[in-house]
Amino acid sequence: MKLVQQLMRRRLIVVTGKGGVGKTTLTAALGRILSALGRKTLLLEIDPRESLHQLFGTEPSGGAIVKITPKLGLQNLQPRAVVEGLVREKVPIPPIANRIINSPVFRQSVDGAPGLKEMAVLGYALRTVLGEYRHSADVVILDAPATGHGASMLAAPLDLAEAVSGGQLGEMSRQLADFIANPHECAVMLATLAEEMPVQETIELIALLRKRLGRPPEAVLVNGLYPPFPGKSPSRRAAEPPSLSLWRDRRAVNERELARLAEAWTGTLAELPLLPLTRGPDLLDRMVATMEAELP
Ligand SMILES: Nc1ncnc2c1ncn2[C@@H]1O[C@H](COP(=O)(O)OP(=O)(O)O)[C@@H](O)[C@H]1O
Ligand SMILES: [Mg+2]
User: Fold this and answer.
1) What is the domain extent for residue 195?
2) Domain count, the chain
3) Which residue ranges have their beta carbon within 6 Å of ligand 1?
């Protein structure tokens, strides 16, 4: 598991990809694997519809850190709450901090300022691994928003650093941008299915990471692959049961899309099968065992 050895040295692992491809499941499985090897790991979920906790069978986080094992925790993080926390830190007089936070101007600028919420989340992750918070961790695995937003999240610090030079915000943006662009500190894991749209988005995201951040992803994880179809005949036979036709067709798409991906990406790639259990701790157990066997 060379990939796992590499991930053991990273301090931030960002898992991104199109919605529904398995980001949350893969985040949870990576968390189990790295924490079992001794890395103190915090899983950060941004999606307000919490689902990470379901894989561990714990209560939802509601913003708090939920301990799963001594080495593994999860937290659902709402960007607005992080920005508010920063205000409270800078303005230690609660009534004044509250006035600022509840003012319409503040609310509008948090929602409207491009990249501010993304910066807040990444900043929270960075301060967690740098030990500036009480709840420090060796590594944060970020279950990032779906591709488009994931990409703008990764580029946000750089965009801001270029727009605002100097000052506290400019400095913080520069520090974050450097951290994300540094492949020794931060890993970007692109999750995808071997289907046309997710593969297209993955190819575009690889190009964007290279062009904008000057770095490739650490690996592409191709999830939910149908098993090879037994027998040779690639075309449908008359009177074949629909389930077999589906299997044959999906697998043909998988193979075509894997080939297309291979033309754009020659780096680390893992192929993960479609598992028979569709949710919860059982699925997570199976995914952990599968990744332990399949990761390159
Ligand atoms: N390899 C797999 N085999 C079977 N089901 C999977 C697999 N990976 C994910 N799932 C299921 O697919 C759905 C989407 O996965 P999820 O991790 O929530 O994706 P995302 O976070 O990208 O939206 C979930 O119901 C999950 O349990
Ligand atoms: Mg998810």
Assistant:
1) 2-294
2) 1
3) 19-25, 51, 223-224, 272, 274-275, 278-279, 283
